[in-house]
Write a structure and sequence with these properties.
By secondary structure, this protein is an alpha+beta fold. The chain folds into two domains: about 55 residues, no CATH class; about 200 residues, Porin, CATH 2.40.160.20. The protein is built from three helices and twelve strands, in the order αββααββββββββββ. The strands form three sheets. The chain has an eight-stranded antiparallel β-barrel. A two-stranded antiparallel ribbon has the order 1-2. It has a two-stranded antiparallel ribbon with strand order 10-11. A hairpin with a 5-residue loop joins β1 and β2. The protein is elongated, with a radius of gyration of 70 Å.
Length: about 350
């Protein structure tokens, strides 16, 4: 009896399996044209997977004996029977993960609005202001460029002191020594440039001498004043900018006034004119060029120097004859002092400025 029951159970299980396979195949073929094949699981909108609904029970034909309730088979039999069923059962659709949301595209920048003429004018004004400020900053930071002026110095002005040597014994009537200082002023201008280093200048000068002596012969007071006017030509060679040898030739005349006075007597005075020619040579020591030049080029030619010259002065003799003095007790009309020789060597030192 047990044997029959076992075989009956196995046959019932086999029929049930075949019947379910046929029903599922018919259902799949009917829904193929209208719906998506049933899946074992359904994906929800949120991405969660729900279990598939169990297949509906197939209708039973009339006259078919009711199926015997299935009895659980041993584990080995279940495994054997599940294998063909799983092979014939359609596999559930693979769950596709939701695609990641892409970054939204960047917004297209708003195009620059069309500039009006007022906008253009405003921007140009801002640029001009910026350039002006930059130029002002550059002017304050960077030193202004130096502008060089003309370093030529054709003009010269000098103050001179001459030591004049007199050897005539008649000069002792007016001075105790034979050396008389002469103070003078002179001015020159370079009239000709012979070479790059040789210049010819023309000069005009004036000098004054004054000698006075008291107690001559016990009661006489003598006084001699001379004014010398001359014109000169000089050659100056620029050996170095600071050292310039030169030679000078001058010609002029001296106006002399001699006075003789005795105690309690009137003053006797006489005048004389003496021509004079001098020839000398020396050198000029001066400051370097452009020493006093400013940034804007002024005073480029200004210089200060010392000029030393030595030479010989050839003068004509001067004659004095003292006439009658007013109130004089002794007539002096015939008092002749004779000729006074004024020629002799000289040394001139001048403080010179050139410009």
């Amino acid at each position: 009896m047990s044997f029959l029951n076992s075989r009956s159970v196995a046959a019932a299980l086999l029929l049930a399996s075949l019947f379910s396979d046929g029903v599922e195949a018919q259902t799949t073929g009917a829904a193929a044209g209208t719906a998506t094949p049933p899946t074992a699981a359904t994906t929800s909108a949120a991405g969660a997977t729900a279990p598939a609904a169990p297949p509906a029970a197939a209708p039973v034909a009339a006259g078919t004996p009711p199926a015997t309730p299935a009895v659980a088979a041993p584990p080995a039999a279940q495994t054997a029977q599940a294998a063909p069923a799983s092979a014939a059962t359609p596999q559930p659709a693979e769950v596709v993960p939701a695609a990641p949301q892409s970054t939204p595209p960047l917004a297209v920048p708003t195009p620059h609005p069309t500039w009006t003429s007022a906008d253009v004018a405003r921007v140009r004004a801002m640029l001009r202001t910026h350039r002006a400020v930059g130029a002002a900053d550059g002017a304050t930071q960077a030193p202004s460029p130096v502008v060089h002026g003309d370093a030529g110095a054709p003009f010269a002005v000098g103050f001179s002191v001459d030591a004049v040597f007199y050897h005539d014994k008649g000069y002792d009537l007016f001075a105790n020594d034979d050396v008389t200082p002469r103070f003078g002023l002179w001015a020159g201008y370079d009239v000709l440039k012979l070479t790059d280093h040789l210049f010819m200048a023309a000069e005009l000068g004036w000098g004054v001498e004054h000698e006075k002596q008291d107690g001559v012969l016990g009661a006489l007071h003598t006084d001699l004043v001379s004014h010398t006017f001359d014109a000169a030509a000089s050659l100056r060679y620029v050996l170095f900018p600071w050292l310039q040898p030169q030679a000078r030739l001058s010609a002029g005349a001296t106006w002399l006034t001699a006075e003789l006075q005795s105690d309690g007597e009137a003053t006797n005075r006489d005048h004389a004119v003496s021509p004079i020619v001098t020839l000398g040579g020396g050198f000029l020591l001066r400051t370097p060029p452009r020493l006093f030049e400013t940034n804007d080029g002024r005073l480029a030619s200004a210089s200060v120097g010392v000029q030393v010259e030595g030479g010989y002065a050839l003068r004509g003799s001067a004659s004095f004859a003292l006439g009658d003095g007013h109130g004089a007790q002794i007539p002096l009309r015939q008092a002749e002092l004779g000729e006074l020789t004024l020629s002799g060597p000289y040394v001139r030192t001048s403080l010179v400025t050139r410009f």
